[in-house]
Specification:
Layout: E1 6-10, H1 15-26, E2 30-35, H2 42-45, E3 54-58, E4 71-74, H3 81-86, H4 88-109, E5 112-118, H5 145-165, E6 169-174, E7 177-178, H6 189-199, E8 203-206, E9 212-214, E10 216-217, H7 218-229, E11 238-240, E12 245-247, H8 248-258, E13 265-268, H9 283-289, H10 297-308
Parallel strand pairs: 1-2, 1-4, 2-3, 4-5, 5-6, 6-11, 7-10, 8-13
Antiparallel strand pairs: 9-12
Helix pairs in contact: 1-7, 4-5, 6-8
Length: 312
């Protein structure tokens, strides 16, 4: 085990943030969680607050803040379209001003800071699978732009603070992730399908269900984040995700089967600017971090469904 550190996790009450906090506490670190609670959930923090090495503060990262820490994981911002579209200006502020504020803090403290960027950087990609050298195909004024473009700006801030101010930054591009601590009304496809299937409601396939995604179980993703943070010479960007690709129709049918088969499928209109295919090239993570996902989709869905079942 590495030496105990003081670690700040922004967005720590969210899906990924709370799982990351739990992992860091298990490693013996002191964890400071900040969250505006716009989309964070106190129930995600309930198992953590009993730990004397954990503290959390309600604050918005778009406003300056200060904590004495050794490392910073910038995980703040809603990640599902319904959530980040609910207040697009707040989404922009969270990603842009939040990045500036964590970078200023890291510069002041000499701390290493990780930016949780996103596969949405690549937009409706024209190359497949998506590798880190691809610049993306993003609509700057579309319905997803408040999230996509502000994440792209945040990456630029992280890169320039490293180049011009010698701040110890690293960028990770996270692909679709799922597992315990997802919100029931999250709006992301797996939580949406699982909740509806458990209720026996219809699962809607937008555009016929032929679009693809690649789903990474949360424990694999968190392992990747920790390895990236502690790879001192790594600057990124680095893709983290599971390269196993599946169509939305196949995913829906698998979830229906695993939840008892009561739910049905319906077909709806395609969503504007929704990427056709999404699959990470993780060659860089494999080579530099010796990281690759170990939880397959079937096993991960079983664990996710078991977590959701008593909560639906």
């Amino acid at each position: 085990m590495s030496a105990s550190k003081r670690i700040l996790v922004t967005g720590g009450a969210g899906f990924l943030g709370s799982n990351l906090c739990a992992r860091l506490l298990a490693e013996g670190h002191t964890v400071i969680c900040v969250d505006s609670m716009v989309t964070g959930l106190e129930e995600n923090l309930a198992p953590l607050v009993k730990n004397p090495r954990f503290q959390w503060h309600r604050c918005d990262v778009s406003e300056p803040f200060h904590f004495e820490v050794d490392q910073i994981y910038n995980m703040a911002c809603a990640a599902s379209p319904p959530k980040y579209r609910a207040n697009p200006v707040h989404t922009l502020n969270t990603n842009v001003f939040g990045a500036i504020n964590v970078l200023k803090l890291a510069e002041k403290l000499g701390a290493r800071v990780l930016q949780a960027s996103t596969s949405e950087i690549y937009g409706d990609a024209l190359v497949h699978p998506q590798h880190e050298d691809y610049w993306g195909n993003v609509n700057p004024i579309g319905p997803r732009a408040c999230y996509d473009e502000s994440k792209r700006v945040a990456e630029t801030y992280f890169w320039e603070y490293r180049q011009t101010r010698n701040v110890d930054t690293v960028i990770v591009r996270i692909f679709n992730t799922y597992g315990p601590n997802m919100a029931r009304d999250d709006g992301r496809v797996i939580s949406n399908f699982v909740v509806k299937a458990l209720r026996g409601e219809a699962l809607e396939l937008y555009g016929g269900g032929h679009r693809t995604r690649s789903f990474c179980f949360v424990s694999d993703l968190i392992e990747g984040l920790v390895r990236v943070m502690n790879a001192k010479d790594l600057t990124g960007p680095v893709n983290l995700g599971n390269p196993a690709e599946t169509t939305m129709k196949d995913l829906a049918e698998l979830i229906i089967r695993k939840t008892g088969g009561r739910a049905k499928l319906t077909v709806g209109d395609a969503v504007i600017d929704d990427p056709q295919r999404r699959r990470p090239d993780i060659s860089r993570a494999v080579e530099l971090l010796n990281w690759r996902p170990v939880v397959d989709l079937e096993s991960g869905l079983d664990r996710t469904i078991d977590w959701f079942r008593p909560r639906v």
